């Protein structure tokens, strides 16, 4: 008796199968399913899915905007605080300290399409990745938790 080949794009899990999705094709579905299980305010437009959460430790709201580039799914996080000119060196030092300690660069000083520089966190994932919703949920939750820690630290330690 021949053993059937596993379904392409599926992974066997005891008791059920978990669908493995290509991020580039299903990123909106992955993000929206993840967000639906959390208490975030979301805004969706033609190019992005954004969510906001309250950063109680700082009194600010953090916005995380999921969008794609030609090759990446990007999660761009900012806390709505613009930097004064006299804060730029401290912000650069805070970014360097965070990135060095975390061993995963994600914090930088940004001045992209905005009126003034700000601190921003960026996480990305190649669009060619394939993962289950469960795996994506864990990754997205980790990105948000790191953003929470990062902006809290920048506010409390560096007064940004």
Shape: globular
- Report the order of strands and helices: EEHEEEEHEEEH
Low-confidence stretches: 1-17
- By DSSP, the count of extended strands is 9
Helix content: 25-40%
Task: Provide a count of the helices.
Answer: 3
Quaternary arrangement of the chains shown? single chain
Which percent band covers the strand fraction? 35-45%
Main sheet summary: 6 strands, antiparallel
- Distance between the terminal alpha carbons, to the nearest Å? 67 Å
Q: Output mean pLDDT.
A: 87
Plain-language structure description:
It is a single chain. This protein is of the alpha+beta class. Helix content is 33%, strand content 37%. It has 3 helices and 9 strands. It has helices spanning 23-36, 88-102, 133-156, and strands at 10-13, 16-22, 41-44, 48-55, 60-68, 72-82, 107-110, 118-126, 130-132. The strands form 2 sheets. A 6-stranded antiparallel beta sheet has the order 3-4-5-6-8-7. Strands 1-2-9 form a 3-stranded antiparallel beta sheet. A hairpin with a 3-residue loop joins strand 3 (41-44) and strand 4. The radius of gyration is 18 Å and the shape is globular. Residues 1-17 have low confidence and may be disordered.
């Amino acid at each position: 008796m021949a053993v059937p080949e596993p379904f392409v794009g599926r992974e066997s899990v005891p008791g059920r199968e978990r669908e493995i999705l290509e991020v580039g094709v299903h990123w909106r579905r992955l993000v929206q399913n993840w967000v639906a299980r959390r208490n975030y305010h979301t805004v969706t437009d033609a190019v992005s899915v954004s969510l906001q959460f309250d950063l109680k430790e700082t009194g600010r709201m953090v916005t995380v905007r999921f969008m794609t580039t030609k090759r990446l799914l990007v999660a761009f996080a900012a806390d709505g605080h613009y930097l004064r000119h006299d804060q730029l060196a401290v912000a650069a030092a805070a970014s360097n300290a965070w990135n060095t300690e975390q061993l995963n660069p994600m914090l930088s000083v940004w001045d992209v399409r905005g009126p003034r520089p700000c601190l921003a966190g960026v996480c990305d994932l190649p669009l060619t990745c394939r993962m289950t919703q469960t795996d994506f949920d864990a990754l997205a939750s980790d990105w948000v938790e790191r953003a929470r820690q990062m902006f809290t630290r920048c506010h409390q330690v560096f007064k940004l």
